[in-house]
Amino acid sequence: MQLTSKHEEYWRKNLRITGILLALWFFVTFVIGYFARDLNFSFFGWPFSFWVGAQGALIVYVVIIWFYARYMNRLDQEHGVAEEE
Q: What does the record list as coiled-coil region(s) (predicted)?
């Protein structure tokens, strides 16, 4: 099956946003987690490394999921492949 230019554009945008969000996930999970002890300062009365590990990363993960779902719904509607309710 040959993909049309509209399909190729859809997948290019899908792969681009997936790559960006995966890079953000990697940064929050590994880079900030690795350097958290070096970034140890008081943040709302808690050590920053604890806050990042316990709360900050989880908040970022939820925001990533929310943004991806919203972005893909808009992209699906733009390209006419949305699942209508």
A: none
**Enclosing domain of residue 11:** 5-78
Using DSSP, how many helices (H) and how many strands (E) does the chain show? 4, 2
Please give the Cα distance from 63 to 57 (Å, whole number). Answer: 10
Spatial distance between the Cα atoms of 52 and 39, rounded to a whole number of angstroms: 10
pLDDT at 66 over 80: yes
Nearest-5° Cα angle at 17, 5 to 75: 55
In a domain, 48, yes or no: yes
- Report pLDDT for 58: 92
Number of domains in the chain: 1
